[in-house]
Input
Amino acid sequence: MESGYLRLLPQRIEITDFSAPELDIYARLTEAQLLNRDRPEDGLFIAESPKVIVRALDAGYEPVSILMAHGDSEKETDGIFARCRNIPVYTAEFDVLTQLTGFKLTRGMLCAMRRKPLPAADEICRGASRIAVLENVMNPTNVGAIFRSAAALGMDAVLLTQGCSNPLYRRAIRVSMGTVFQIPWTFLDSAERTGAGLPEQLRKLGFRSAAMALTDQSVSISDPRLASEERLAIVLGTEGDGLSADTIEECDYTVKIPMAHGVDSLNVAAASAVAFWQLAGKS
Output
């Protein structure tokens, strides 16, 4: 069976023309275009590697199409096909796909999936005792790394301000190893819309807040008052600038991680892992 630019193979569609519009999702659309702010119900994202795709499917995300290299027939891949019936599977040689997408595919497979409506903050925080809160963390690599630590180290949810990078950007998903699909998250309404700063929004959700920042008033992360809080929000800021002055001032605690050898601070992703481990309310 032939079309103008793609030849249908058994269960797969061989790529013969890089300009095929079906490939725009993978090769030509920007993250902003995939996000589709004007029509969020039509928003898409790209999940990369079989393990990440399985985690997205387990979380209920709907697959749209698959792009993969020839020869990927391992058990995990076959299981994905069984769950993704009636969607196109575009294939080509690994080197061809690397040229098409501009980077080497992780284990040779990408899946375009539909975004889901985001839940309300009070919905995902209901019953939570420890949450991570990101203020204007713009680097998707840091966002992905923080999500991985949050999922692994006992956070119940992640809240993000509007200035943060989207957790479903391809790099964030990849760095998180798909944990963005395993821990509840959402964006908070802006302060302009709510009339309340970040710490006040957290109080309305029932949390005391701990700002991770170096100030003269900072307490050690091992301060027993932090561990004794029934519901605690750990607030982290963007790389370099850190948290805003207003957020630091209004949080219930300002918290520091003691440093050695003259080091003044950690990367926000590394700091998040230390904070989550120490403050997760472990028994």
